[in-house]
Design a protein that fits this description.
mainly alpha; 3 helices
Amino acid sequence: MHDACMLPPLPNGLLAAEDDALVNDVTAVEVVEATVVFAASVVLAVLLRRLLVRTLDRQDADRHLGRLTGRFLGLVVVAVGVVYGLCLPAVGV
């Protein structure tokens, strides 16, 4: 019954994900965990951006350098948080 949900094997013979991760439904607990991870990554990104902007503005650096670097760092932190939050159910954490 679940064979229709299975992904075809990759050229090296491996599946794209674990069999149970493809078949099992996502529970409400996993959705809450992913949401908490995402929210924490957004908060962390905002705090790091503010800290970086404040640190670079105190030095003789270009005024926009802190903002640009802070936004990039925030984007990276949020992206890592999204990927980690989405991977939580797949790895069984």
